[in-house]
Amino acid sequence: MELKRYLEADSKTALDKIKSEHGDEALIISSDKIGNKTEVIIGVNERTKKVTEIEEESKEKSDAFRHALEANANQGNGKQKPSANKKNPWTVIEKLNDEIADIRNSMLELQKNAPKSRKPTISEIDEKVKSRGFNLAPIETFNEWADVNFILGKPGSGKTEVLKRVLSCFNEQSEIDLLVINLSVGSQNQELMSLSPSLNFTYMNTQDIKILEKIENLRKCFAHIFIEVDYSLSKRVQERAALQNNLTMVCSGADHGFDPKEFGLETQEDHPPMILTRLDLCSDLPSKLNYLTENEVKIKGTATGPLK
Length: 308
Description:
This protein is α/β, with parallel strands linked by helices.
C-alpha cells in the first residue's frame, strides 16, 4: 500500500485527477482544506492496479499468469499442491484496505465528537484581566518604584523606551536624584546618555556585574536607581536582585512570544512583574492578554509607541 498526496484547486479537480491516474482502486484516506486549496490523501496499490488492467484486457491471460506464478512457487516440490493455509495476497490487501477505511471512519468520528475550541469574548477577557489585577495603564503612572529597580528584557523589547517614560515623569514631578546604570556587555546606551542633562539624572555605563556589590552604598546617594540589564546577564542579575529584595521588572513585547526560561526561570510563577510593550504592533491583543492571564503573569504597566 502506497500513500499519495494531491493538492489541487478544489475537490472535483483532485478526484478527477485521482480517477484518471488510479481508476476506482484508490482508497481516499483524508480530504482537507489547505489554504485555498484542497488536499486529498489516497492509498493505492500499484500491483493491484496493474493486475486489474491485465484482467480487463484479457481474463484468460491473467489466469494463465497467476497459474504460472503458482507453478514457479511450487517448483522443486513435484506436484505438491499449494498449502491450504497459504494466504492469498489479494485477500490480505483487501483486508488491509478495510482496516484503513475503519481507521479513517474512527478518526472522522472522533473529530466530529471532539469539543470545538472557542475563543473567549472580549468581555470574558476583560473579566480575567481584572481578576488578575493587570495594570494596563502607561508605565509612567506606576508609583510603586523601589530604591533599586532592575529593568530586564530581550533586545527590542522596549527597555529604553520604558526608562525614558519613567525618567520623564520623575523630572516633571520634582527634582530628585536619580541614577541610571546601563549594565551591558556591549556598547553604552547613547540614547539614554544623551537625555541625562535634560531629564536631570546621572548616567553610568558598565560591563562589570560587580557594580551590584556597590548598590547599597549608591542607594544612600540617590532616591531611585534604575538598572537596565543586558539580556545575557538576566539570570545572574536576578539571583542578586532576589537577595537584595529590590524590584525587578521584565519588558516583553506584546507581539513577541513569552517563555520564562529565557530569563533563567523554571516556571511562570517565578516570573517578575511584566511591563507589556509594543501593544500597537500586536495583531491579536485580546488573545495575548488571555494567554498571559492563563499563565499567571503579573502586568504592572504598558508602553506603546515612542514617547511624545
